[in-house]
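Would you be willing to look carefully at the protein I have copied below?

:::
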Amino acid sequence: MSEGGPDGGTSAGAGVTATVRADVCRVGAPAEWHWLVTGGRGGTRRARAAYNLTVPEGFGRTDLDAYARGRRREAGFEDDGPTLLTGVSMAHARLAVRGPVTVLATGGLSNPATLPLVGGDSSSLADEAGADDDPPVGTVNLVVATDRALAEGTLAELLATAVEAKTATLLATTGFTGTTSDAVAVGCDPGGDPAEFAGSATAVGAATRACVRDALLASLDARYDGRAGELPDSVAVAEYGVVTDETARVFEPDRAE
C-alpha cells in the first residue's frame, strides 16, 4: 500500500483510504458510497466514510450516536458515516486488499461465542461463562469496501460472505465462532462496474474472503503478540462469553396434496 490518499491517509486500493487518529479509524471512499451495517444503529445509508473506533475500559455511554459523532470530530473527521465500536485499540487495526475489495479488521476475543454441535458436552462451559452488563473489551469488527456497484440484495450477500469468512477464520485459529458483539459494515460504489452476485464463487466474494481472513489474522497477531496468555482457551476461562447449547424443535413442513 502507498501513502497519500485524498484525505492524507493510506491508499488501500480501489480509491479507498484508511486513516487512524485518536483511536478512530476512518475508511474513506472517493465519493458517497452505499453502506449496509449490522447492529441497532445499522441498516443502509449513503456516506463518504465508515469508521471503527476504540471505546475506553468501563465504557457505559448509551447515547452512542452522539458519542461517535463527538469522537469523530475530536479526531478531525468531519464526514458523517456508519461507526463501529470496540474495546480493541486501533493500534491493532489491519488492512487487506485484493482486486476490487479492501477490508479493515480489528479482533479481540475477551468475549468469545461458540456453537457446539448437538450432543456435545458444553453444559459446564455455559454454567461458568455467565453474562455481564459491562461492555466487553473484545469484539471482531470488519469494514468491507468494494468499488463494484451492488444491488441491495447483493450487498447483503457480501455481508454474509464476510461473516462466513470471519467465522471460518476464527474457528480454524481459536475454536470460537465469533464474539458476543461482532459488527460488520460493507460498502460499495453505486457508480462502479456492476456485480450481480457476491458469494464465494464470485470475484468480489472470493476477494472478500481472502481479505477478511488475512486482515483478521494480522489484527489478532498484533493484538495478542507477546500476550498469548490473554487469548482464552475456552469460553469457560474467558472474562465474558456465551455458549449456545440450547436445542430447537425440528420438524418437516406441511406438504400440500
In short: Residues 1-6, 121-136 have pLDDT under 50 and may be disordered. The two ends are 61 Å apart (CA to CA).
